[in-house]
Amino acid sequence: MRPIHLCLLGDATSPHIQRWAREMRARQYRVSLVTARPAPIDGVEQHLLRPVRRSAQWLLRAGEARRAIENLAPDIVHAHYTTSYGYLGARAGRHPLVMTAWGSDLLVTPHSNPWMRWLTGWTLRRADLLTGDSQSLVDAAHGYHPTALVHCIHWGVDLARFAPVPWDAKPGFEIVSLRSWEPNYNIPTIIEAAAQLRARQPTLPVHLHLLGGGSQETALREQVARLGLSQMVTFHGRLDDAGMARVLARCKVSVSVPTQDATSVSVLESMACGLAVVATQLQANAQWLDSRWLVPDRDSTALADTLNALAQESATAQTTGQRNAALIQREGDRQLQMDRMDALYRQLLQGPGTRARRN
């Protein structure tokens, strides 16, 4: 029997797309990818669209995407990020069509103007199955009255790579941020909170690790220098999973304070490594973390207060990290999440057949 052919639509540069492709190949799928941002992925045939530099250009890539999908003739099309590749999948008209919302594509972009909200609803109503990685995304999708079922499937954690290390082996009080250096993720707030923490406890061996990389790097480096923090902040940029795991092994606390977000893989990976996690007061974070460790976005004083409490109460920080690791062991295993997705794919293929495209 030939393998199921899954055609993904998404950015090949994204580690999430790369992981999804690898997981499905491990489950004996044939995986292809239609993308405007290519990057090597072992065993995945890629069909390239012209680059997209402005959001409006997604509208101009529909014909290219449709022809690529027609040539591939996959069994399932799965578009990641509804307001870009989801639109291309909807215009291609091939079914079954799966769409996965990532966060801002439902929580932010549709609210920019009425036309984007209309287009988002039109796109979602062309899908045969919708997924999002938090209840907030599931609720947002339901707000567009889709005809498809909506499932909460999160990205999950590779528990073979992200696992706790002995607490006593961690040097000092080291903090990590895994979020991109972009405006939504409020990295300046984290740096300011670190400065406040040092001012409150000048003898505490604090060190802040910044992973992720992004467009704000120059401004962030200038902020660190201005605050006199150069010796206690390391700019790592983007690291692979192994590099991330090495940094996490040193740290006791992970900070994630975006203004908008769904379930963050970086939060789950930090929890899996047994770190205490401080995050924004968002519905997606409240699903995983105790309210004691949730703070307002862009509030450096509230963040510094919480970090100071964890620094002063090492046993509490350790217990919180242990609780986080146990929770991910129960509910955050990527293998289980991808097994659920595999089952949903197969249910789609056993359904009544490909539906006609609705115009």
Please give a structural write-up.
- There is one protein chain.
- The chain is of the alpha/beta class and 359 residues long.
- The protein has two domains: 5-156 and 334-349, 3-Layer(aba) Sandwich (Rossmann fold), CATH 3.40.50.2000; 167-331, Rossmann fold (3-Layer(aba) Sandwich).
- 42% of the residues lie in helices and 17% in strands.
- The protein contains 14 helices and 13 strands.
- It has helices at 15-26, 62-72, 82-92, 104-107, 114-124, 135-142, 187-200, 217-226, 241-250, 265-272, 283-286, 300-312, 314-331, 334-349; strands at 5-9, 30-35, 45-48, 76-80, 97-101, 129-132, 149-152, 173-177, 206-211, 233-237, 253-256, 276-280, 294-295.
- A seven-stranded parallel sheet has the order 3-2-1-4-5-6-7, sandwiched between helices. Strands 10-9-8-11-12-13 form a six-stranded parallel sheet, with helices on both faces.
- Helix 10 links the parallel strand 11 and strand 12 (276-280).
- Helix 3 packs across helix 5 (114-124).
- The longest helix is centred in the C-terminal third of the chain and has 18 residues, at 314-331.
- It is globular, with a radius of gyration of 21 Å.
- The protein starts with a strand and ends in a 10-residue tail after the last helix.
List keywords for this structure.
2 domains; 6-stranded parallel beta sheet; alpha/beta; Rossmann fold; 7-stranded parallel beta sheet; 359 residues; 14 helices
Low-pLDDT stretches:
354-359
Apparent shape: globular
Average pLDDT number: 94
Give the neighbour order of strands across the main sheet.
3-2-1-4-5-6-7
- Oligomer state equals single chain
Q: CATH top level of the largest domain?
A: Alpha Beta
Share of residues in helices:
40-55%
Q: Structural class, from helix and strand content?
A: alpha/beta
